[in-house]
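chain and backbone:
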Amino acid sequence: MPMLDAYIPDGALDPSTEKELLATLTDILLRWEGADPDDEAARSIAWVFLHRPAGLFVAGEPAADPRYRIVASVPEGQLDAERRNGMVSAITDAVLDAEPPGRRRDPTRVWVFTHQVPEGTWGGGGRVVGLADIAGFVLDDAEAGEAYAKRRLALAKAERDAIFA
């Protein structure tokens, strides 16, 4: 049940290119979360929200070139360090690749924030759902979803413990 908020200034990209970018971002989000981008069940719960910032200022002045802010939200346990780094790199490249020719390719104009929603705090369908629920839906197998969630959440805890040790 990944979600992505894409903040793209109005007019920064050609409309058809922007539409392609949003589809590409969906694929990237799913791939780096660990799902198959071609899986219809996974795609059905991967949402991308497009936001149009009214204005962007850098150092108190209107920005000369567009800036992009991408916020990827996934259930806890889905993004270890490798997946976070891969997602950030892939999203940055996809956004810059979508820009028109001749625009300065500057990865510092693309900021990507990965956010893991703590287990037990994701709500969908009128109830709180956990990683096991989501994985069970995508895998069409509740037991496999439970096993997957236990494994991913244990890895996330180990990574967190190592950071704060």
